Amino acid sequence: MAFHAKKIVPHIANHTTTKYPYGRLRVLDIDPIELARQLTLFDSYLYNQIKPVECMHEAWRHTEPWMAVNIKEVLKVFQQVKYWVAYSILGEKDSLKRAHTIESFINMASYCSSWNNYNTCMAILEGLNMAPVASLQQTWLLINTKHRGCLENLRKLMSPSSNFRLYRANLMYLTTPCVPYLHTYLDDWENNSADVDVIISEVERHQGSYRFSVLPELLLPIIQELQEYGTLGAVIKLVKLMEGKYESNYDVECTFLEEESRYPFRPIQY
Questions:
Q1: How do residues 107-155 score in pLDDT, each as one tens digit?
Q2: What are the two backbone dihedrals, phi and then psi, of residue 133, each rounded to the nearest 5 degrees?
Q3: Which residues make Cβ contacts (< 8 Å) with residue 229, sequence separation at least 6?
Q4: I need a labelling partner for 190 at 20 to 30 A (CA). Which of 56, 63, 125, 270 fits?
């Protein structure tokens, strides 16, 4: 799917931009709020492309490339963000830098939540909760109390318990702009817990534009990062390189079979 950054929002608002060194994008070099803005614009753009017909007859499960193309794209980018989060953390060889990277992603998830971008927020949470990241015990000990509390609140909000009760209650009163956690709508349809007309209405109700500025010089490198490093294969390769060098050894095969389950979100116990 071709993506043109300048087309994703019709309204441009003035705000302070963040400069970063050219070259490979590194999370610690960029203000978390700007990363969160650009990810929100990208996710919102993709979500706004979803058409009503894509929500019918489980079209997103069909292998034909022309069916539910926009839903499939949202799901693909969700996975890319999740794996990119893990890759970015695991790629730092110093415990303190890994901790700072985790704190940066917690800040990004918090900003996304405050802007009603629950899809990116959940993707970040799942990335933080992937087994190789959760196993970095020394790193997690360096996370300060403020960020621990923020992460715990986000996990409570997005907890799948009681069919995402807290998240759904919060979403009920929101209109636009908003990027819902798309998996919940798809599960409602698959489980016959909601009529397709209701799901379509909900999807359309939240489609709208954020009044943030698109920064192509930042957004395009983010997209490139997601495409190159936001894959299961990239994370597995990195974990194999890490074995015996960092804080823990990992059973790569078992870990990632588990991570690819339908709902891999499991709160980390401290």
A1: 999 999 999 999 999 999 999 999 999 989 899 999 999 999 999 999 9
A2: -75, -45
A3: 83, 84, 87, 88
A4: 125
Residues 222 and 85: their CA atoms lie apart, in Å, by 12
pTM: 0.82
Say if residues 58 and 242 touch (Cβ distance below 8 Å): no
Q: How many residues does the chain have?
A: 270
Other beta carbons within 10 Å of 160: 17
130/221 Cα distance (integer angstroms)? 24
- 1, 43, 46, 147, 201 from 52: Cα distances, Å: 19, 18, 14, 39, 8
Which residues neighbour 104 within 8 Å (Cβ) at sequence distance 6 or greater? 27, 28, 32, 35
Look-up of token digits 């071709």: 2
How many Cβ atoms are within 10 Å of 108's Cβ, its own excluded? Answer: 26
Q: Which residues pair with 117 in a beta bridge?
A: 179
Distance CA 244, CA 235 (A): 16
